[in-house]
Amino acid sequence: MDNHLKLRGTFSSSLRNNPIWEVLGPILMASAGSIEEVSRPQVNDFNFTQEDDNQPLQLLLLTPSSLEAYQKRSLILRLREFAASDSSSCPRKAIAFLLSEEAFWSASEKYSLNGLLALQVLLFESLAVPLPVITIADAPSFLASVQEYMSNLENIPVTSSTLGQSLALLAQATSEYPNALPEQATNILSDLFPSFRALSKATRTVDGQQLLEDYFGGEKAEKIVRFWQEDLLKE
């Protein structure tokens, strides 16, 4: 383990059944003595503490493959179970999102932010209070990224799921990606819909689609609706 890392913790043995184990497993096994494997059933994938901070952090590990359409239903159930799990002994929770599922020698920054955007939207759609997301470039960066996050963490703030506080993410809600919605459009959407869930539902109804068309015109409204109908976000 890197001498500069001060993490202590455990990981679930169920990770061995995850395809990401091929690249992440060697990193964890090289940290034997500091990061231990546990075989008992648990909702989270990791439980970390720092040497100078006894308050643990629970992590759920996700990758772009976790967001495949055929896994969406089971992923939502897992997210809700993780968010609702007992917080009395571990109030700090977060999602660790690995942008690249390839080994460091082949990844070479070949990753897209599409998966991260899809995850953020899914969290806003599925949870009353979205969980924080730790964005990690690749497997070799995993432990260092977690430690950096924990070092900068005093208390995970309770975040609001209102669209008004998520304009940067809302601006990406168009099939014109990577072109974002203009500021005026995002402000209108945040006024019309109180949450991502409300916007998502509206795009699936005739009345909701008509409302978007009234405010944005047919072409722009269609692109907003199409965003929510992309395969990555379908049930």
Characterize the structure shown:
The chain has 235 residues and is of the alpha/beta class. It folds into two domains: 7-151, Rossmann fold (3-Layer(aba) Sandwich); 163-233. Helix content is 39%, strand content 15%. The protein is built from ten helices and six strands, in the order E-H-E-E-E-H-E-H-H-E-H-H-H-H-H-H. A six-stranded mixed beta sheet has the order 2-1-3-4-5-6, with helices on both faces. Strand 1 (7-12), helix 1 and strand 2 form a beta-alpha-beta unit. The longest helix is centred in the N-terminal third of the chain and has 13 residues, at 72-84. It is elongated.
Total beta strand runs:
6
CATH architecture of the largest domain: 3-Layer(aba) Sandwich
- Fraction of residues in helices? 25-40%
Total domain units: 2
Average pLDDT for all residues: 78
Sequence of secondary-structure elements:
EHEEEHEHHEHHHHHH
Over the alpha carbons, how many angstroms does the gyration radius reach? 19 Å
Briefly note the CATH topology name of the largest domain.
Answer: Rossmann fold
Derived from helix and strand composition plus strand pairing, the structural class reads alpha/beta
Look at the structure and give the CATH class of the largest domain. Alpha Beta
What topology, given as strand order, has the largest sheet? Answer: 2-1-3-4-5-6
Beta content comes to 15-25%
Low-confidence stretches: 105-110, 155-165, 231-235
Described by the principal axes of the CA atoms, the overall outline is elongated
Q: How large is the count of helical segments?
A: 10
Instruction: Give the N-terminus to C-terminus distance in angstroms.
Output: 40 Å
| Major β-sheet profile | 6 strands, mixed
